[in-house]
Amino acid sequence: MIVREGTNPRIIIWALTIFGLAAIYAPPLYLLGVSFNPSLQPGLPHFSDLTLKWYMALGGENALVAALVQSLIIALATAVIATALSLGAALAYRELHRGRSIWFLTVLLPMFVPGVIQGLALSTVISRIGMKASALTVIAGHLLWAMPFAFIVILTSFAAVKRTYLMAADDLGASRFRQFYDITLPLIRPGLISAFIFSFLLSLNEFTRAFYLAGRQNTLPVVLFGKMNAGASPTIYAMSGAIFLVSSVCVVAVALRSLLMQRRVR
Asked: Where is the ABC transmembrane type-1 domain (predicted)?
């Protein structure tokens, strides 16, 4: 029997990859299955017992619906602001000749600060200046979390912007604004869309920072946590399953769009 060189390492790599993906996706997929269980007790239902009644019952959960609306508003605002600020930070990074590394680390620093510390610190500062906890304070906390990721996504998309394109436009008399609007922006648009969706999902699912900064207007993760401790209702599994499905669809849509853009470029 002839064993090809490199076969065993490939098998090990694929086995570890499959194991890692299974460990990541098994819990949310299990929760999704539980949401279709007609029983009050959590567990995977039989195929013949699948039901949507807990999804239909979400309309009567006023606290969950109100928290979902609040989270969507906060996530939308966070995504818009984080994408805009990250675009400015990425443009500044490309223009810098000295201090690039310092600027890069400065923008990424909030990514490495634990959420508990960030939330507690912001809550302390906000209370000291006499500002009440509200949706604005939650947005501020979520920006610190989402902006580094959006910055990396947008900065990566700048790989499609060749210096020669900008030099050619400059030779033709195009202003810096026209170069950005006509050349840079179309090329990095997939990155901007990805950064927006990424920031939106990060904000929508963020719990730790919102727990310290939400005040009376609780976000959906905070309400779900409270309901879980008070005695889980199957409707929270339905809400979690719906968010998981929508998030998965958004991620798949972004991935498909990126693939289509790559094919067009080729």
From this structure: 68-258
Residue 254 has a CB neighbour count (10 Å cut-off) of: 18
Each domain of the chain, given as residue ranges in start order, spans 61-265
Measure Cα distances from 257 to 189, 224, 263, 264, 266 in Å. 11, 32, 10, 11, 14
* Closest CA relative to residue 203, chosen from 25, 117, 81: 81
| pTM listed for this prediction | 0.79
Angle formed by the axes of helices 115-128 and 135-157, to 10°? 130
> What distance in Å separates the CA atoms of residue 135 and residue 141, rounded to the nearest whole number?
10
pLDDT band (50, 70, 90) for residue 249: confident
Distance CA 73, CA 79 (A): 10
Tens-digit pLDDT profile for residues 95-115 = 888 888 899 999 998 888 888
Q: How many CB atoms lie within 10 A of CB 136?
A: 15
For domain 61-265, give the CATH number: 1.10.3720.10
CA-wise closest residue to 112 among 84, 152, 76:
152
